[in-house]
Amino acid sequence: MSDWSGKRVVIIGAARQGIALARYLAQHGARVILNDRRSETELQAARAALADLESQIRWVCGDHPLDLLESADLLCVSGGVPLTLPLVVEARQRGIPLSNDSQIFLEAAACRVIGITGSAGKTTTTTLVGRIAQAALAAGRLFGKVWVGGNIGVPLIGVLGEMSAQDLAVMELSSFQLELMTRSLQVAAVLNITPNHLDRHGSMAAYTAAKARILAYQSSVDSAVLGRDDPGAWSLRGQVQGRLVSFGLSESPPVVSGTDETQADVFSRDGELWFRQGGQLTWLMSRSAVVLRGDHNLLNVLAACAISLAAGIPERVLEAGVRGFGGVAHRLEYVRSWGGADWYNDSIATAPERTIAAIRSFTEPLVLLSGGRDKDLPWEELAALISRRVDHLILFGEAAEKINQALVSELALSGGSDRTLTVTRCPGLRQAVQAASQVVQPGDVVLLSPGGTSFDEFTDFEERGECFRQLVTQL
Question: Does 403 have pLDDT greater than 50?
Answer without folding.
Answer: yes
